[in-house]
Amino acid sequence: MSEEQDWRLKAELDGDDTRAALDHVLAGVRAPDVVAEGGGPAPGHDVAITHDGNVLFAYTASQASLRSARRAIEAALRRDGAHASITVSHWDEQFDEWLQVDPPLTGEAQRTQEANERDAELVESRTLIASAGKWVRAEVERSMQDWADKLGLRCEIIEHPHLLTTQVAFTVTGPKRKIDEFAAGLKAEELATLRTERAVMTSPL
User: Fold this and answer.
1) What pLDDT, in 10s, does the model give residues 136-194?
2) 114-121 — which CB contacts under 8 Å span 24+ positions?
């Protein structure tokens, strides 16, 4: 998630033919009459507003900017006689997910979020396997050890050498959410390694 767009508005329209309605709302959000009715400035170009056919989304860098976009979106909805359920969320880097802030979660939804947060903090150990060619194995190990240190994870590395490639096992211990981040980084590193290996092996001598 980009640090520049860590506020999100989500508007779910009532009714069946939502795509056409959302197209119309989206087209009118920055219209002068809609902005005037909203009682504030037009949403800035730093606000990304789109929809997937069923739900309208607005992303921006600040809560103040999102409030301006919300006024324009609500004015466009009123102009079209449409009604939507609107929620505002903030990207939480600690848990790597959107956390709803308006309206505040209550009841079962709140308990579920709190349970998810507790689960993400549980300490566990997990062993992850990656393959690395002999030319870049040391670089992969160094990169992933640095990533584990940055995440605050304990990391043990075990090698299983083969002729051209080495299977490297990373046993990492720490909060579950941090291990999930490490696993995503390891997958990306492995894909990058495969591309590098292919380029080395196919390059002319």
Assistant:
1) 778 888 899 999 999 999 999 988 776 566 788 899 999 988 898 899 888 888 877 76
2) 119/176, 120/95, 120/175, 120/176, 120/177, 121/175, 121/176, 121/177
